[in-house]
Amino acid sequence: FSFLYSDIKWPDKLGGDIFTIDRKPAIPPQLALIITNVSYKTNLNEFENDLKVRYENIAGVTRLKNKNHFDTKLVKVEFSSSKTRDNILINGSIMVNYIKYDVKEFLSVATILICSNCMGLGHFRKQCKQSDSTCKVCGEHYQDLNKHCRSGAAKCIHCGGDQ
Which of 40, 86, 78 is closest to 62 using CA atoms? Predict the structure, then answer.
């Protein structure tokens, strides 16, 4: 991945046709880390420039936001090579603008597809092959959930156990 991420590794022509890359691929979470406790007053451009001077294979620096879209004290640093990232994580800290910061591994948010028709995993209602709808409370199949009497006991849809 790190070899192909660099623009200079790609040819200008392929099979006689000229092509351009519209956008770079996203950096996978395995090539990112989190710098903790970065002050809100820190100029992120200066922060990024100092990081890029010290480590040449930094692909991006982003201040993370919370669910209300407010800045946090966490800064995500993406690398084009895992070697530098791994060395920093082993060390447990990083120096930026003469300040020592703790670092942690970046763990991306897990996304799970759940079908609202059958409550199955790995697909959405549009791709669902089940004709009847599944009640999310009792796990029974019904043609029309609006006419379903919800007096049944609540149970896990997947294993049938009590909730």
Answer: 78
Q: How many CB atoms lie within 10 A of CB 146?
A: 6
pLDDT of residue 9: 62
Beta-ladder partners of 96: 99
CA atoms of 95 and 61, how far apart (whole Å): 15
Same domain as 51, residue 12: yes
Quick: pLDDT tens for 115-140: 888 888 888 888 889 888 888 787 78
* Domain count within the chain: 2
Same domain flag for 40 and 94: yes
| Range 69-93 average pLDDT | 94
111 pLDDT tier (thresholds 50, 70, 90): confident
Phi, psi of 77 (to 5 degrees): -115, 125
Distances from the Cα of 45 to the Cα of 51, 59, 89, 96, 119, angstroms = 10, 14, 23, 12, 45
Handedness of CA 42, 47, 49, 54 (dihedral sign): positive
